[in-house]
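new request in #modeling-help
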Amino acid sequence: MSDRALLEVRGLRTYFSTRRGLVRALDGVDLTVDSGETVGVVGESGSGKTLTAYSVLGLLPQSARVVDGSILFQGSELRGADAEAMRRLRGSGISMVFQEPLTALNPVFPVGVQIRDVLRAHGAVPRKQLRGRVVELLRHVGIPAPDHAAAAYPFQLSGGMRQRVLIAMAIACSPRLLIADEPTTALDATVQAQILDLLRHLVKEDGISLILITHNFGIVADICQRIYVMYAGQVVEHGSVRSIFAAPRHPYTAALLHCIPVPGDDSSPLATIEGSVPSLVEPSVGCRFAVRCPHAQSRCRAEIPSLRRVADAHWAACHYAETLGLAGVPACDTPSPVPAGD
Amino acid sequence: MSVLDVTGAGGTSRFGGVLSRICHGPIEVAAVLIAAAYVILAVGAPLLAPYDPNVQNLRATLASPSVQHWLGTDEYGRDLLSRLLFGARSSIMVGASVVALSSLIGGAFGILAGMRRGIVDTLVMRTSDVTMAFPQLVLALGFIAALGAGITSAIIALTAAYAPIFVRIVRSSVLVIRQEAYVEAARLIGVSPVRIALRHILPNAMGPILVQSAMTFAFAVLAESSLSFVGLGVPPPTASFGNIIAAGRDHVGDAPWIATSAGVGIVLLVLSLLLLADAFRDAIDPYQHRS
Amino acid sequence: MRFRFILRRLCWAAFVLFGSSIVVFLVLHVIPGDPARAMLGPEASPDAVATLRVQLGLDRPLIYQYVVWLSQMSQGDMGRSILLSQNVASLLVERLPITLLLSAYALCFAVLIAIPVSVISATRKNTAADYAGRFLALIGLAMPSFWLGIMLILLFGVRLRLLPVFGYVAPSQDLIEHVRHMILPTVSLGMVYSALLMETNRNSLIEVLQQDYIRTARAGGLRETLVLYKYAMRNALIPTVTVIGIQVGYLMSGALIVETVFAIPGIGRLLVNAVLARDYPVVQGTMLVTVAIFTIVNLIVDLLYAVIDPRVESA
């Protein structure tokens, strides 16, 4: 099969052992990314978006374990791979950019040193050329005066610059897949747009596939081709951006979409989704969204819906996906990035 | 408000509540029990000791442990067990005195500095900084050189060494708490500063004070034993762990149990106090990163 | 910016030294009764006492005495020892290096033990190895150094007859003997210190290992040893170094006692004997020197801190 997906996650289950019991943080997640694609993973805090990324990269904390499922990257199974193989993969095959640029960088080393260490860890560049490569990378991500920047400490740089540094670190060894976890949340609006432009540029020019984790639908509409919507550790809907925006099939997705405030409309109150993400220690038998769902029926509480195809390139996990007729949002009308949900 | 209330974390609990908050596990329980045991032994030493600790019996010197003398006798034929019990008494006495005095004096100055600010604050803080510039035993020795050796001098000397820490702790608590709205309100109503200090500030500072008290107790016991060891603490013939070890040192070849047992006596007491300090710290700190 | 920081620390150190000198000076004057009489003993004749009083300038106003004393001290004239009939200054010059050597050895010993143990403890948090390490550290902290010294003497000196139990041999005289004589004192003195360091570094390391930048380093594919020893340690050492400085006071206090146990002719033992004999010039001189060293060490630690942590601009 020449058309093999770059990343294929099937039935991923990641559980935490805590004092209160076993937390089923990820309970059967399926996710695919093809070469050159930009895929968005959306959901509110606690839905498991970041955890999925950690599970793929083997960065789980000690109390968490992948208990089931398979993670295929370029055809090889990552789950159960040995530690050294995973280490080599991280940074060179799959890379990750994190949310908080300040805390994500080591405060006592200049940023150039930190990038250089990534390069050295994968032995891609001969010693003499390391410094040059670092400067080149910084230039590539749009940092002005890159040779000065390389000697700077993280606290001396602005938030946007730090994020660019993190991106530089992530692409240093030309990974095939980049996972960006809320890369713009901690930044202000103008800088957000710049970072997104950078990511878009990297995808186009360097052919990197991108998984963009966010709770911001505006960003998703901007640069993603497909989205996965996650709730309480499961994927509840996924498909092309156009299809989902035009006609969401899962009540949660619809609710999230309608949380985006429309600029100019000052009269209608900000929509919110009542309630909060349920505890995952003893997850409910039925649909996990049923408690908060305005359309919930008795079947929803009793039987957990499975993901099924509801339209062309569009899957949803809701018993009434076809019949609800939920209103969508025109994808091209979505305004500049604003926070949704939460 | 009972002096046993622990309100550092914002809640008020009675004695039983305090105990349950401290005793997270078997280690903490053991620490509390051991410390309590020492206090009981120390207080009850005159009743519990099988022999008078100062009575010599020159026909039975350096005897090894036996039925008559459970831990043997020292170089003057004095019963070791009795001497150890009274040694515990000395340690507890000196330790408790030092803790009480340094926390009271240090606390008072801390409150003064924190509430008054300005020159008073600067004066108090600079003085305590200078005091802390001395290694503790060196400062203590200085005092003892001036005052002469003895239990009182030792207590005074160690109080001088440990009070500045309490000044700092209390002062920083005061600085934090006095910014709270209810303290401001009380001040505006016209409540006297003394009342404010006692009613509002002190209970909230109790937590760190308690932790530091346990630690100071531990350090005071160690310091007192060191001073007694070199002959500048509890004066012989009064028994103290330190001077028992000093005497036992000369006979460490043929009667090692003397020095060993006294040392174990110190280690157990200090260990339990340090564990208590840790337990207090866990109990008052709501943001504990449980390891 | 760094310069201002250094300047401020220097001024601070100067102030502390000045304040300490006042305290040391007052030692002689807080004595209940007559200092001169106290120094000479109760049998001394009134004439001898009177002479000494004049000699020491005790009949002049306090401020005057202080100024004179301070200027003498700073010029190196610290008086004569009553007990040893020797210049205090020359006594100190003789003995200080020995104490410094012992302290340096103890410091090295402490660091060599504490760092590896703390790393093991922190990386294997809450396992048997961790608990064992922490327990040993706690016991080390609870042990009086003199008692540890005596136990070591019992084991290595008396029972096993491996090492000498007292005295001092200068390295210039005989290096091997010097080392043999210093082993037990070093261990006795260093044990408490290493316990402190171990606990501090462990906690610091645990805290650091939970930070985001460690996760970033791992996500970049860095080897775990690099993550630990470069990325983590550098940050973890910052509070540890601070503690090292603060606790040098412990080291110096401990040196007093350990020197007494092992009969090492350092300034610690000098001080103890001087206090026992009420030899005030020696007491004052030694105290002053000790404080000066402590203050200088703290100063160095602060400056070191500024070097290690680039975020320090102005403290």
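bot summary: Chain C is about 75% helix and 0% strand.
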